[in-house]
Each structure stands twice: as structure tokens, then as C-alpha cells.
Design brief:
Layout: E1 9-10, E2 16-20, E3 23-27, E4 32-36, E5 42-46, E6 49-53, H1 59-80, E7 83-90, E8 95-99, E9 102-106, E10 113-115, E11 121-127, E12 130-135, H2 138-151, E13 161-164
Antiparallel strand pairs: 1-6, 2-3, 3-4, 5-6, 7-12, 7-13, 8-9, 9-10, 11-12
Length: 185
């Protein structure tokens, strides 16, 4: 049995879960999420607990067992606590500002880059070189943060660009130039 798949999911107070065939809807204080579940995986809702099981030990059932449990657990955690990703901007003159709900980046291009967040996503700028992406959908928060980072990835020679907080960027050594000897012929 899958260690992850057989763990029950605790449902906190204030979270409403509806299972309609293969469609699950999780409603909580932060928002509402819904997802289509894999066909063969069995989901049972008891008093404040969700159990996920599989019909057989086939390879696809084993793979879907843990995945389904994790997706449902992420939905429950998202509508109660929410998720966030932090990004740092490194580089002289690089900065971020907010205009309404939109994020405006000045990161070395000839024009400012404006990002409109998706529904359910909020972007905060606590400092000109810090960005925080928050939301209740873990997948959407991670994708939004990845899209922001992709605008100016950290380059390997000076480390300038947008990176996740705590991300280590391995710097390469630059050119060393001539080391002596006769130049020319």
C-alpha cells in the first residue's frame, strides 16, 4: 500500500466537502476549489475525515492512489490556510511595484513588464526587491511564481535576476584574460 495514499485526510471545521460521482468540491473560508478525480480511485467521506483507496495493485492504480490523496489534501489546506511563494529581485536598478492588483517589474528591459494576476491570486510587494505570491490553489501559486521568475531568470555570471527566496544560484567564473607570455604571433 502507498504510505501517502492510505493516510486519512483530516477535514478542519468550516470546510465543506461534496463528492458528486467523480467530481469533488471543497469549500472553505478562503475560497472554493473543485477537481475531477481519476476513474478507479475510491474516495470515502466520513465525519471530518476523507479516506482514499485503490481497487487493485496495478501500476496505474498505485500511482493514482497517492496522487489523488495529495491533491485532495492540498485542496483542503488551500481553502483553510492558503499557499504563498516568495521571490527576490537581485540587480542594480531592478525593482517591483504594485499598480492596483497588477505587478510592474523594472528589470533591465527598455520597458516595464506588467503582470496581471489570475483570479484567486494576490501579489504583494513588501519591499522593492521582494515579491510574495499568495492564493488558495497550490498549483496556480507555483505557476504564477514560476512565470514571474521566467521573465528574468538569474544569470550565472553575476546572479542578477528574479529568484525564489532561499534559492542558491551557482555562479560561474568569468573570463580571466591573458595570463602572460607573448601575445600576437
Amino acid at each position: 500500500m502507498s504510505r501517502i495514499g492510505r493516510k486519512p485526510i483530516d477535514v478542519p471545521a468550516g470546510v465543506d466537502i461534496k463528492l458528486d460521482g467523480r467530481h469533488i468540491t471543497v469549500k472553505g473560508p478562503s475560497g472554493t476549489m473543485s477537481r475531477e478525480l481519476p476513474a478507479d480511485i475510491v474516495v470515502e467521506i466520513h465525519d471530518k475525515e476523507i479516506n482514499v483507496s485503490r481497487p487493485s495493485d496495478d501500476r496505474i492504480h498505485r500511482a493514482m492512489h497517492g496522487l489523488t490523496r495529495t491533491l485532495i489534501a492540498n485542496m483542503v489546506e488551500g481553502v483553510t490556510k492558503g499557499y504563498s511563494k516568495s521571490l527576490d529581485i537581485v540587480g542594480t536598478g531592478y525593482r517591483a511595484t504594485k499598480q492596483g492588483a497588477n505587478l510592474v517589474l523594472q528589470i533591465g528591459y527598455s520597458h516595464p513588464v506588467e503582470i496581471v494576476p489570475a483570479e484567486g491570486i494576490t501579489i504583494d510587494v513588501p519591499a522593492p526587491t521582494k515579491i510574495t505570491v499568495k492564493g488558495y490553489d497550490k498549483e496556480l501559486v507555483g505557476q504564477t511564481a514560476a512565470n514571474i521568475r521566467a521573465i528574468r531568470k538569474p544569470e550565472p555570471y553575476h546572479g542578477k535576476g528574479i529568484r525564489y527566496t532561499g534559492e542558491h544560484v551557482a555562479l560561474k567564473a568569468g573570463k580571466t584574460g591573458k595570463t602572460g607570455g607573448k601575445g600576437g604571433k
